[in-house]
Amino acid sequence: MLDSQSWPYLESGMWVFITFIAYMCALYIFRFSKNNLMFHPIVIAALMVAGLCIASNTSFADYALYSSPMGWLLGPITVALAVPVYQQLQYLIAAGWRGFWVVLCGGILAPVFTILIMSLGEFSTDIKLSSLTKSITTPLAIDTANLIGGVPELAAAIVIITGLMGVLLSRLIFKLTDNNDQRAQGLVLGTIAHAIGTSHALQLSQKAGVYSSLALCINGLVTAIVLPLFFYFFGA
Amino acid sequence: MLKLTLSCVALLLSWLVGYGLSLIIALPPALLGLLVLFAVLTFLGHVPEALFDLCQFLLRHFSLFFIPPIIAAWVYVKTLQQELWLFLLAILLSTFLSMVITSWLGRRLLPKDKSLDKANTDSDNNA
Questions:
Q1: A72, A93, A111: which is the final residue of a domain?
Q2: Is the CB of A17 inside 8 Å of chain B's CB atoms?
Q3: Are residues A104 and A181 in the same domain?
Q4: Per-residue pLDDT for chain A (236 aa), expressed as one digit of tens each?
Q5: In a domain, A89, yes or no
Q6: What is d(CA A66, CA A146) in angstroms, rounded to the nearest whole number?
Q7: Are B89 and A113 in contact (CB under 8 A)?
Q8: Does one domain contain both A152 and A210?
């Protein structure tokens, strides 16, 4: 993959810069499309970057390596979620236990459905274990997958795909279930589509964003605590 | 500028403390970091303005940091080959089902929004 032993500063800097520019263009396109979900910035930016990789004959694996400094920031940015949660604590108390049960149900159903559907096909245990963390944010999923014996890279991939699908499906689902309560919308996005859903919820409204952050934290917390304990006691 | 730097340091420090704790407690570092920052804010009793601005900015552009993992995800998922479409279908279906149920539950279970309530009763009175 790499010719020299040293870190490729130039390529790395260049690709991080390209990713920034692609994201800014994607934001502009999203606004221009009047916030059409099919033009979600994360989708457009990823397609642009992928296109540039192909055009410049850079393999996706190389791009992943070059852009890895951005990945180091995912952890500290997840920590930043403490701020909206702290600020909106009164809303959390207002939603009370009922909101908590909603998140808990969603958090349990998501992996259970995945396992059920996957047991219809012939998937390896690796894939099944790695998909248990599909609805919690990437930094948490990677660590949890490690603890329960899944494959961290695969877990991250599944989390990202789930988040993207969740955001793209969200409008349809809110229409289907006649959900026009911003708080409930936030809970759904945060519970199922984790951080990607939360960044989308923050664009919908401040209130949706807060509920989404709360759901993300609760589901992340519960899944990250329960799954390893579950495997510890009922060891697979 | 100083305050902004301090806020960045505060975030990184919380994460580092979380990382340190994760060596003792078997929980993800980012989660522990979040709890550490939350505890500090509770202790302070308010969110410093610069920290608030920084966090809001970072979280609004959270998606940016998911672009590299998306490309990396594709590299890994492609190795599934003939299972690929079934795999994507399984994720799509389970995401859809769990979202529908969560959305339905959220709509049902959440207590009425007070701000909305007020607006409704007002219009009822007028009618």
A1: A72
A2: no
A3: yes
A4: 555 556 778 888 889 999 999 999 998 998 888 777 778 888 889 899 999 999 988 888 888 888 888 888 888 888 888 888 888 777 777 777 788 888 888 888 888 888 888 888 777 888 888 888 888 877 778 778 877 888 887 888 888 888 888 988 888 888 888 888 888 898 899 898 888 888 888 778 878 888 888 888 888 878 877 887 777 776 65
A5: yes
A6: 24
A7: no
A8: yes
CA distance B16 to B99: 34
Scanning the structure block, which residue is given the tokens 């970072």?
B58
ipTM over 0.90: no
Residues A210 and A122 in one domain: yes
Interface probe with A: pick from B63, B88, B100, B107, most Cβ of A within 10 Å:
B63
Query: How far is A103 from A124, CA to CA, in rounded Å?
Result: 29
The conformation of residue A120, written as its DSSP 8-state character, comes to T
Domain ranges, residue A29: 7-72
- The shortest CB-CB distance from A71 to any of B12, B68, B96 is to B68
- Report residue B120 as tokens: 């409704």
Nearest to B67 among A46, A101, A198 (CB): A46
Task: Give the C-alpha separation, A85 to A72, whole Å.
Answer: 23
